[in-house]
Every structure is written in C-alpha cells, then in structure tokens.
Amino acid sequence: MGGGYASIPGVPIVPEPRNLNPDAPSSSSDEWKDKGAAVSVRREVDANGKTVMKSVKKGVRDFSFGRVLGEGSYSTVFLATDRQTLKEYAIKVLEKRHIIKERKIKYVNIEKDTLNRLTEHPGIVRLYYTFQDENSLYYVLDLCTGGELLGVLKKTGTFDEECTRFFGAQILDSIEYMHSRGVIHRDLKPENVLLDDQLHVKITDFGTARLLTDPRAPPKPPGQESSQRGKEQDDNRAASFVGTAEYVSPELLTNKNACKASDLWAFGCIIYQLLAGRPPFKAGSEYLTFQKIVNLDYEFPSGFPPAARDLVERCLVLDPAQRLAIEHIKNHDFFTGQQFGKMLWRSKAPRLRPFRTANAHF
Predict the structure, then answer these.
(1) 138 sits in which H/E element
(2) Of 121, 141, 161, at which residue does a domain stop?
(3) Residue 265 sits in the same domain as residue 192
(4) Which residues does the annotated region (Disordered) include (predicted)?
(5) What's the pLDDT tens digit per position in 37-67?
C-alpha cells in the first residue's frame, strides 16, 4: 500500500469479478463462490455438547463491501463486513494485472508470507484470510479505525512525552517480536503504524520486509537450508532501493544491506518525529535527504526532552553494530517506569496532547 491506509470518505463499492483474459468465458456463480476461497478453523459445539473443530471457507461473496479506506499504486482497501458474523474487517484488494505489469509479485508474496508468520502479537496487523478471483487478490485484515499514526500526529502537531513513550513502547515491543520471528520490516515509519479503536499500535505494510530463517521453525534438510541462505544473500546484494527516504538507514544506502538494527534506526527517527512533529532528516530531494543521513546531519529543536534526545542519539548511529539493542532501549531512562509485554497491551492509551515547552520552536 505504501503507507498503511487512511480513513477517507467514499461511496460503498463492491469489487466486480473480471477476467484477466477478456476473451475467456466467465465463471458460473457456483464456481465464483469457491474460487480462491481461504480455509480457516473455527471451534463449535456439536449436538452432543462436544467441542469440535470445523473448517470454514471464505470468499468474496461472504463479505459486504463498504467505503474505501485507502488506496495505493496497485491496491485498494475497503471496509468490509462478514455477512455471517457481522464482524468488520479491512480487505485489501490487489489488482493482478498491475502487479504483473509492474513486477510486484515478489513483494505481494513477501507480505503474505510475513503476515502468516507474525500471528501471535497484538502489535501486528493480522491476516485472517486470503482468496482470489480472475482479476484480484484479497487480503482480509484487522480493521484499524484509529487510522495511521501519522494522521493522528498531524492533527496534534506533536506528541508529549507520555504519548511518545506509550506509542514508542508499543512500536518497540512489536519490533522485538518481529525480530524474534526472523522478520526485518525495512520500511518502518508513522504511515505504516496503524491504530485500532483503543489507539493501540498495529504495524502494517510488510511488502518490502526481509525474511530470515524463523528461529521457531523446525530445521530444514541441508539442501533447503543452503537455498534459504542463498536467498538471503541475494537479497543483501539487491540494487533496488528499499524503504522511505526520511527513515532509511545509512547501511542500506551505502551497501544495500539491511539488518535488524536498521529497524532501530527507523525507530529513533519515529521517536524524534513524535516529539518534534517532523522527521530528523528532511531535504528538498531524496538525494539531499540521503546526504543528510550518511553525514548524520540533523538538529534537535530547542527544548527537546533530554532523555529522549539521548535515546535518539543512541539509535541514530552510523555503525549499526553500535546502536542501542532493543533490551537496552527498554531500559533507557526515557522508558523509566514503562511496562512492556502483556501489561503494555492491556494499558489504556494516554490522552493525546502536543509537546509543550516554553523554549520550543517547532
């Protein structure tokens, strides 16, 4: 999508099934219902009172499509309701023709594979079903009614330290989980942080993620293991730019090699932006922005909180090996008194307030 999805008004729209080949015969209604249907498992109680597991198929006809939530270069996100359970979802509809034309198949598959791996954390947008028709792919995702973190930030201008600490803690907790499952996001930014109805964080947009070997997965046969290692090395050498200019790490610019610490560089940029209202590295063009990044050319606004400044400075370090590790960030003075883990996700989001200081010039 290129930045989560924004809550924008729109008329109710239902995606129409179309063939990639205009001369091909259209499917019957029965074929249409089963085409690409995803299978999920649901617990039910049978006539004898016993709990049984029942497979559930989902397809386009199982959902009522509403307004557009957001649009990207090759996808549209709709508000949708499950006709049986009445639960609301966000359904991302990806146009096959455009995906093929723009050679985006790799990124679509990466996003699906990543979301299927990251299923056990409240800070990651959940993928419930995937299915397809002749024209489109469909991803049924968590509905995040709070919109993008960037949109909320723009309304207040800045966040105070309490808000920044809360959102920062949830983002960090989510990064820690991603890394524990062998996932490097590579495009963390406020647009890719969504908020649910409780203003809790949900990370999204994994199309450019790098998948490492999952530490929890059973060991693979020797041949497959070396193949996976080769894929990771090929990814390191890829010449294409990955990420967003203002948040990209210097190592990705200098040798195209993203690592887990690259996400922590982006985390430092986000902490800075939540308090300052703008990213630390910003110039008139991508090239000039990149020059600022590799030269570590940024300044703090006057009145920037000292503890937050120290944290940002320890994250925005050119050598990724010298950046603060996640455990050290959690123990940093800025997060003094902040809970992590399950208690963090049970806590109520603070009231949204802008950062105020008598000497601040934002």
Answers:
(1) strand 136-141
(2) 141
(3) yes
(4) 1-36, 211-236
(5) 455 555 566 677 777 666 667 999 999 999 9
